Amino acid sequence: MSTAHSNAAKEFLKNQTYAKWHDATFWAVRTKRDNMAYGLEEWEQLREKASAIKRHTITHLDEYLDQFATKAEENGCIVHWAKDAHEFNEIVYGILKNHNVKKLVKSKSMLTEECGMNPYLEQHGIEVVETDLGERIIQLKGQAPSHIVMPAIHLNHDDVGELFEEKLGSEKGNHDPTYLTYVARLSLRNEFLTADAGMTGANFGIAETGDIVVCTNEGNADMSTSCPKLHIAAIGLEKVIPNYDCLAVFQRMLCRAGTGQPTTTFTSHFRKARPTANPMHIVLVDNGRSEWVGNPEHWEALKCIRCGSCMNTCPVYRRSGGYSYSYFIPGPIGINLGMLRDPEKHSGNVSACTLCNSCQALCPAKINLGDQIYMWRQQLDEFGTANPQKKMMCKGMSMFYGSEGMYNLGTALAHWANIIPSPIINCGLNPWAEGHKMMEFPKKPFHKLWKEIKK
Amino acid sequence: MSNKDDILKKYRANVRERFFDERSGKTGFDMPDLSDIKAITYPNPLVQFVKMTEMVGGQVIEVDPGRDVNVLIKELFPDAKEIASNLPEITIATRNPDTAGRARDLNGTDVGIIRGKFGVAENACIWIPQTMKEKAVCFISENLIILLPKSQIVNNMHEAYKRIEFDKEYDGYGVFISGPSKTADIAQVLVMGAQAARSATILLMPE
Fold it and tell me: Where in this chain does the record put each LUD domain (chain B) (predicted)?
């Protein structure tokens, strides 16, 4: 009865030392987030405002997108619109080809991950260099991110040390994080200086001014756009917000919620190209968003600002890791976005949830993440992805619980199951004994005890 | 029809179908009032700004009136060979981001000196509009020095976003910087100096 997620998680749990570290690390990040949130009396008010701004913006996004694009064009930017991932990749490649770009440096963008841009560009002969340290590490390793904010969290310093020995020629056996960061700095510095173009994602687009706002700790978005002659910014439709007053709310929450810092080191506003560079290009990407907004139960997933706090707090994510999910974004928001993208492919993730709702208690934009996962589960039968064994069990249970006679008889006899020898009961065919000991049935069922107490 | 029209038309139609309310004739949600946010303020924003700057890994030095910053910077970075700045009061600069041939020529700068407009007490952000031809100087330098007028500290980002302005000449870019570049991408160990400046020193300037 295991799902795709729980099967994948078995792999993650093989290394118990690492699994414990992973769990503790994210709980520490969650604790840092709490300290930040409790440090502001207005935190809950900010969450209310953030949610209300997003609800308003998403239901008026056509107007704000038009305003944003018009303003950006007035500023001197060239604005493109991509309906889907393929169009996005074609547009980006077209721009790069026109400028004769051989090497592209880029800062972290989950949108380019969503669209599979790197492999597309590489197939067309363009070298793509990730410049966020975590992204660079997994790029050198040939892997995908396992967390949206901490993409290389599944690797320890020895993994990175060995990788750098092989790929960047670092000292053998020196796996000190400070040293390794410095090695990456030198190597990336050379890439920044020799790249023909730089690409950034966007944390926010500001309709009133046309600004692309990018938040980083490393300064890699700024380095990516300071030397190359061309800047392309990729932005999902839902990242556009009305104005600076709204931005202030989100800027204050993004990093506090995500990593437990008071701010990212850099909050960069790109309005147009540097004086010595070619005009800046902005690519607005739909890729499903205009469809999702009409989904009555799940449209609020579009409120997400990609802070990562829902995965940091999720007891299932912390104990199963990013690679246990089939969608490239893991954790509660990833479960929901994956289902919006392709329910048949990603239904295996909806069981990766205890419905504890810690995610939605934390989400800075107040997305009802846990409720949405619950609702997806109700729909599995429609998608043809419901587990047949569970379906049968549900039918059996509704029969059992629906008949008083059967219920009384069953609960009275259940304790006889306790005497079945444990090798049989724990043989692996019994799903109730998977990963833990089989429960013991009480001699007297609860409803009988209750009647006696009430006497 | 263009892609833009197609996308916006589809988006609009789906919003209308889902959110149009016949009774009110309205579609979707109203913009909330943001003026009632009870944002944090500090009895002494400057003290808080200094505390936060140190917390994020920066260094703050208060410059006494009459003190020559050039002498101070030489004391702070005695080994610095290449110093980049376009500020008129910096006389020790060996490079100028306004006259650098290419941005990459600023690589190898030991100390870059720039000016901040105002600081934010809650998170140590400093607003730095681009005021030089090559903004690379703000990131490519090994060590960054930001001259900041001591009196220009606001409480929080709401106040900050009410007053940010871009430069008239270089009106395409501005950035909030809070401390040195940093990363924890290797095993969650915090390291200063990822891709941009490895240290950030804030010189609080008298009026």
Answer: 103-205
